[in-house]
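[audit] Reproducing an earlier prediction to check determinism. Same input, same settings, fresh worker. If the tokens differ from the archived copy the diff job will pick it up downstream; this log only records the rerun itself.
[audit] input (138 residues):
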Amino acid sequence: MTDPRLLTLGLAVAYVAYVALVHDRRGLPPSRAMEASIPTGIELTLAHAGTIKTYRFGRRILVGRAPSADLRLADPRISRLHARIEMRDDGVYVEDLDSRNGTMVDGEAVTEPRRLEVDDEVTVGSAALVFRGVGAWK
């Protein structure tokens, strides 16, 4: 029968050999990756119910009365999901989501997705949303 101390010594030597020969060859761990998502979004100024406020959103905004809307507006003329404003590869677009009272851009009805330019005014119900542009922020 072998001495248990000899077995323990053998395991310790094997572990040290592993660390010296294998573990150290892997080199330093890689540096932390840069944050993959660059915070880019849409900036709007909202004039509604006697207040004016500027908001910064992500790449897509749902406008409506529903709790799931990103920009919730308490106005009976606004549908639960009224309009969508989203960034695409070639610009920022507004789209009416078959709302009852429609969506307007600078006084013209939106019937298909329409590209927004800086300072365009999007009207939903009694609210006016002025598109201020896109930017990067946290």
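[audit] rerun output stored. Observation attached for the diff report: The CA atoms of residues 43 and 56 lie 4 Å apart.
[audit] end
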